[in-house]
Automatic annotation (TrEMBL), chain A:
Residues 137-199 form a coiled coil. Keywords: Coiled coil, Metal-binding, Nucleus, Zinc, Zinc-finger. InterPro entries: MAT1/Tfb3, MAT1_centre, Znf_RING, Znf_RING/FYVE/PHD, Znf_RING_CS. SUPFAM superfamilies: RING/U-box. GO terms for cellular component: transcription factor TFIIH holo complex. Transmembrane segments: none annotated. GO terms for molecular function: cyclin-dependent protein serine/threonine kinase activator activity; zinc ion binding. It comes from Rhypophila decipiens. The lineage of its organism: Eukaryota, Fungi, Dikarya, Ascomycota, Pezizomycotina. The keyword Zinc applies. This is RNA polymerase II transcription factor B subunit 3. Residues 30-72 form the RING-type domain.
Automatic annotation (TrEMBL), chain B:
Residues 763-777 have a biased composition (Basic and acidic residues). NCBIfam families: rad3. InterPro entries: ATP-dep_Helicase_C (IPR006555), DinG/Rad3-like (IPR045028), HBB (IPR010643), Helic_SF1/SF2_ATP-bd_DinG/Rad3 (IPR014013), Helicase-like_DEXD_c2 (IPR006554), P-loop_NTPase (IPR027417), RAD3-like_helicase_DEAD (IPR010614), Rad3/Chl1-like (IPR013020). Its main location: nucleus. It comes from Rhypophila decipiens. One of its GO terms (biological process) is nucleotide-excision repair. The lineage of its organism: Eukaryota, Fungi, Dikarya, Ascomycota, Pezizomycotina. Belongs to the helicase family. RAD3/XPD subfamily. This is DNA 5'-3' helicase.
């Protein structure tokens, strides 16, 4: 290996542009047959891990179909086989080579943190491995040889450990893979569930509207329009069963099961109240006398049928009842007593009252 | 004026106070006393900043603990405004108290705004200024200078070393301008003065990023003590700031630059190995011990945790395989190459960090653990190599941060690879979005570290969304209404056009000519009746462009032209600022103008249209986000799975907070007035998500108007409001003098006593009842409800 493969094509052109090499992206031209991507859009490049020189599939087929052959790159005398060619994962072939080497190193140095007593030991181990890899990748010829030897030595020394760790590593990988898959599956299910929930809600809304319209159209039963928000809340809380349709029928919504404060029906209803009584239960049937229906007065009878005097809403009985009431109104009151108790009425007021009573009495006199 | 809240004497620099300001102070004090967090919404233009400062400064000065205030705002102008308010406040306090208090308040902003160096300050781009400043001020530059080498230094920066480190600048409040002037006089660097004095001042005012962005917070804010009071003002967008600070986009170009950065690092390392082997060895020794090791000698809790650098990382040693500089560079190279390969894929991929890591390990043998240390290891290397042209390594830094984040968080992040810019694009332009889905991650260190975090804004409804999204608990969550002596703004929802057909910018109907014409009519009508300025918001640039061209075809713009000048916002910042300037001139000289802009653009945030600059704001359509974006979809799913926030709820919340933000632009004070028109059928259902103060001003009948009804309502409102009103009407209702305040306090005290006695009575009653129940034995749980009823009665009474 006279030419260091590490100095990849890409880095070389980048470092000294125009240094003999054409300034065409290496992805666009095969360095062996000079075929351009312009002429063959499906052009692909392959490399062989022996020397990491890239060439197009055409060249590979042309050169290596008849068995092993030399690498067409000038100065590279490696013998390559058709079987060894693969397409590169990385754009930078130096990295491709490094990773290939790492694969080998990693298969030997596969100890994990638990194998060491302290973190520092583990870190030192990691550095040792890294140093070794670095030598393999970038070191000079002698260093590389040394590293190679060290690698083999380690492999010999730690065979059982390596085997065990390899197994453990595979298992762990498998486990994480499975875990990831399970998580993805769960997430997918949750997503579906959420979409379904949303759709159901939408459907329920539509059905609700239809149900209300239907019941309005058929008439008959009393339509109970619920607030939309209320229905939604109920839907969410009783989410489980209650198919949207049934929950919408008036009365079937089971409010009793929810204990929302203030919404619950009261158990004890107040006693039914009668019609409003402006007098607070005062009885107007006179207790001291009885008004007979036939009471009359010849003076009044004249007017009873006189159209000039009769007016709607009044009757003659009204007059007699009032006259009787006024006649008896003062009977239970003794002026002397009132005076002695002294309810604070002034003399003038008392006389005024007396005069009033006297006056009514006077009016009633003719009867 | 001067008054007490409980035992705390507050000096308020104005003779009058608004009732909501008082309520705000009371709640703030409650929060601070309890040492918790709160979310407060106070209408825009009611003096939020001065209220906040007045109370917190009073709190600082009255209690012996002297908790430091960290006030975070969004833009430069807001920071400057807050500093001016603070200065006024302190002046007032000094007058009242008769002496100057020992008090220092500083604002911090970028180097670009604070630089005094004659050549550096002429640079246009902020990052160039940063880089050049670093190359003049870094520690090793000074060392070299001392060794007698000929290196450029910044005289302004070096002068700072001659001063006492805790007294770089005298007490007082320093606005950014003041700081610059002082720096010029004393030949000292304002930026470093502010940064170094942060530990020694009582109030710090700076931008969110200094606290939330892990890259900056690490450097600037790590020494702040635990009992600081942190305030996020204008915080309605805080979740987006958090997410942006942790998200990265990686493009092919940035990867190329990162590769170049890695190559440069390699050459630098080789150079150094030849010249100064010892330094690399020193670094190596240090890394063997651990990232921070014992050398710092600081207490553990003096660090603010960093999302890119979790605590356990600090205690651990760097993994052995990236300890050596050359190993680490190789490691970075491998990682970058891997990313490049991934970018070649031509279909959309979205994957979680664990699956990304598994794939990464399979192909490059990069383990999770060294990846976690990536960002910190790179910083350490850059420091060791004494690199000056930091901006060359920016892309590399980004990749390293990405590496650390992807290895640290299994949940809350997602990788989305989009090979094409749009669905129709033919030429691939792959972008790897590493997007943070969880706003709580970035802000978590803030909540963990500081006991009192106050989140406040003019429009932050619905309040309960924020604690949910940012994952914290609150002591107080309050939205204040605006007390007005008369209705000075009229919000309304227009649902139908002049032909009674429903109007909406919903996807199916947005381009129908009838809808477009109806919107056009609405615009013409309102441009006719609105005095001076009018602002129109569209949901997106795309829609704005299409609707404007359609209006042009219909001759609507010609009609509007008769009444108003028409100006349009564009994505270009300079063009927009020119348009704004013209707009202001036109409004001020009476020609009147209408500004067409976008609800998520620059204009909707941070530009005030006070008084004649905005009499009407017209919001055309609900400003929903672009829902087809994969990042948004991922975030919605995350919110649903983690915080049980449903997609539609979040979208509608987000749209409404932007709408509210737009509406809030016109009303910038109690003497201001304006019309707020929401023109979309869908607003009717979303009304409840508007901030309380807007919602309260909108009567039920104003929520379902057609264009003609809206116009007549607006006419009536405008004729009413334009009458002069005597100040006596305002007195005692929307502004309080000290007497009004005392009365209110007395009333509140009475009510508290009443409530206490009521509570006591209730308690006694309960006890009696409980006794009775125990005697009766088991009872149905229906009985409980009667207790509750009693409680309700007690509350009513």
């Amino acid at each position: 290996m006279s030419r260091r493969p590490g100095a990849g094509y890409y880095t070389a052109t980048a470092a000294k542009p125009g240094g003999g090499m054409p300034l065409i992206d290496k992805n666009d031209m095969c360095p062996v047959c000079k075929m351009m991507r312009y002429l063959n859009p499906d052009m692909e490049f392959l490399i062989n891990p022996e020397c990491y020189h890239s060439m197009c599939t055409g060249c590979v087929n042309r050169l290596f179909n008849d068995g092993p052959n030399q690498c067409p790159y000038a100065g590279c005398h490696k013998t390559l086989r058709r079987k060894g060619f693969k397409s590169a994962f990385f754009g930078d072939l130096a990295v491709e080579r490094e990773v290939d080497l790492r694969r080998r190193v990693n298969s030997v140095f596969n100890q994990v943190e638990d194998d060491f007593e302290t973190l520092r030991d583990y870190n030192n181990y990691l550095q040792m491995v890294e140093d070794l890899t670095f030598d393999l990748v970038n070191g000079t010829e002698t260093k590389r040889r040394e590293a190679e030897a060290q690698l083999l030595q380690w492999e010999m020394d730690h065979k059982p450990d390596i085997e065990r760790n390899r197994k453990a590593g595979r298992e762990a990988e498998e486990q994480t893979r499975r875990r990831l898959q399970a998580e993805q599956e769960l997430a997918r299910q949750r997503r579906i569930a959420a979409i379904q929930e949303q759709e159901e809600e939408k459907l329920a809304l539509v059905r609700n509207r239809e149900a209300v319209l239907d019941s309005m159209a058929t008439g008959g039963q009393r339509v109970q329009l619920k607030k939309r928000g209320g229905v939604k809340a109920a839907d969410i809380t009783t989410a489980a069963a209650a198919s949207a349709g049934s929950s919408l029928l008036p009365g079937s919504l089971d409010v009793g099961k929810l204990s929302i404060r203030g919404l619950k029906e009261k158990k004890k209803t107040a006693a039914p109240e009668g019609p409003y009584d402006p007098f607070g239960g005062y009885d107007f049937v006179p207790s001291r006398y009885k008004v007979h229906s036939g009471l009359g007065h010849p003076l009044l009878e004249r007017f009873e049928h006189d159209r000039a005097h009769v007016t709607g809403g009044y009757s003659l009985e009204e007059f007699t009842a009032r006259a009787m009431f006024e006649a008896f109104a003062g009977l239970g009151v003794f002026i002397e007593d009132e005076k002695e108790v002294g309810i604070g009425l002034s003399a003038g007021e008392v006389t005024g009252m007396a005069a009033g009573i006297a006056a009514t009495g006077h009016v009633m006199d003719p009867r | 004026m001067e008054f007490n809240i409980e035992d705390l004497p507050v000096l308020f620099p104005y003779p009058r106070i608004y009732p909501e300001q008082y309520a705000y102070m009371v709640d703030l004090k409650k929060t601070l006393d309890a040492g918790g967090n709160c979310v407060l919404e106070m209408p825009s233009g009611t003096g939020k900043t001065v209220t906040l400062l007045a109370l917190i400064v009073a709190y600082q000065q009255h209690y012996p603990s002297h908790r430091k205030l960290i006030y975070c705002s969004r833009t430069m102008s807001e920071i400057e405004k807050a500093l001016v308010e603070l200065k006024e406040l302190m002046k007032f306090r000094a007058e009242r108290l008769g002496y100057e208090e020992e008090f220092r308040g500083l604002g911090l902003t970028s180097r670009k705004n604070l630089c005094l160096h004659p050549s550096v300050k002429r640079e246009k781009s902020g990052s160039v200024v940063d880089a050049r400043c670093r190359s003049l001020t870094a520690g090793f530059v000074k060392e070299k200078k001392e060794k007698g080498e000929n290196v450029d230094v910044c005289i302004y920066h070096d002068n700072l070393d001659n001063l006492e480190p805790h007294n770089l600048i005298p007490n007082g409040i320093w606005t950014l301008d003041g700081l610059l002037k002082y720096g010029e006089q004393h030949k000292q660097c304002p930026y470093f003065t502010a940064r170094r004095m942060m530990q020694f001042c009582n109030v710090i005012i700076y931008s969110y990023h200094y606290l939330l962005d892990p890259k900056i917070a690490e450097r600037v804010s790590k020494d702040l003590s635990k009992d600081c009071i942190v305030v996020f003002d204008e915080a309605h967008n805080i979740d987006n700031v958090c997410i942006e600070s942790l998200s990265t986009d990686i493009t092919e170009d940035s990867l190329r630059k990162a590769t170049r950065g890695a190559q440069n690092l390699e050459t630098k390392i080789n150079e150094m190995r030849e010249s100064d082997q010892q330094k690399l060895q020193d670094e190596y020794e240090k890394l063997v011990e651990g990232l921070r090791g014992a050398d710092d000698g600081r207490q553990e809790d003096s660090f603010m945790a960093n999302p890119t650098l979790p605590d356990d990382l600090l205690k651990e040693a760097v993994p052995g395989n990236i300890r050596r500089a050359e190993h680490f560079v190789g490691f970075l190279r491998r990682f970058i190459e891997y990313l490049k390969t991934r970018m070649k894929v031509r279909q959309v991929i979205s994957e979680t960090p664990p699956s990304f890591l598994a794939h990464l390990k399979e192909y490059t043998f990069i383990e999770k653990k060294p990846l976690r240390f990536c960002a910190e290891r790179l910083t350490s290397l850059v420091r060791t190599l004494e690199l000056t042209n930091i901006e060359d390594y920016q892309p590399l830094q980004e990749v390293a941060t990405f590496a650390t984040l992807v290895a640290t968080y299994e949940k809350g992040f997602l990788l989305i690879l989009e090979p094409y810019e749009s669905d129709t694009a033919e030429v691939p332009n792959p972008v790897l979005h590493f997007t943070c889905l969880d706003a709580a991650i970035a802000i978590k260190p803030v909540f963990d570290r500081f006991s009192s975090v106050i989140i406040t804004s003019g429009t932050i409804s619905p309040l309960e969304m924020y604690p949910k999204m940012l994952d914290f608990t609150t002591v107080v969550q309050e939205s204040y209404s605006m007390t007005l002596a008369r209705k000075s703004f009229q919000p309304m929802i227009v649902t139908r056009g002049s032909d009674q057909a429903a109007i909406s910018t919903g996807f199916q109907v947005r381009n129908e000519p009838s809808v477009v014409r109806n919107y056009g009519n609405l615009l013409t009508e309102f441009s006719r009746i609105t005095p001076d300025g009018m602002v129109v918001f569209f949901p997106s640039y795309l829609y704005m462009e299409s609707i404007i061209s359609m209006w042009q075809g219909m001759g609507i713009l010609d009609e509007v032209w008769k009444y108003k000048l028409i100006l349009v916002e564009t994505p270009d910042a300079q063009e927009t600022s020119l348009a704004l300037e013209t707009y202001r001139t036109a409004c001020a000289n009476g020609r009147g103008a209408v500004l067409l802009c976008v609800a998520r653009g620059k204009v909707s945030e941070g530009i005030d249209f006070d008084h004649q600059y905005g009499r009407t704001v017209l919001c055309i359509g609900v400003p929903f986000q672009y829902t087809e974006s994969r990042i948004l979809k991922a975030r919605l799913e995350f919110l649903r799975e983690t915080y049980r926030i449903r997609e539609n709820d979040f979208l509608s919340f987000d749209a409404m907070r932007h709408a509210a933000q737009c509406l809030g632009r016109v009303l910038r004070g109690k003497d201001d007035y304006g019309l707020m028109i929401l023109a979309d059928r869908r607003f009717q259902k979303k009304r409840g998500q508007l901030p309380k103060w807007i919602n309260q001003a909108m009567a039920e009948k104003d929520t379902n108007l057609s264009t003609d009804m809206a116009v007549s309502l607006a006419r009536k409102f405008l004729t009413d409001i334009m009458q002069d009103v005597e100040t006596t009407v305002v007195e005692g209702v929307s502004t309080w003098s000290i007497e009004d305040l005392r009365q209110h306090q007395a009333k509140m005290a009475d009510e508290t006593i009443k409530a206490l006695t009521a509570a006591r009575e209730k308690q006694l009653e309960d006890e009696a009842m409980a006794e009775g129940r125990r005697a009766e034995g088991a009872e149905s749980d229906y009985e409980m409800d009667e207790d509750d009823e009693a409680e309700l009665m007690a509350l009513d009474g």
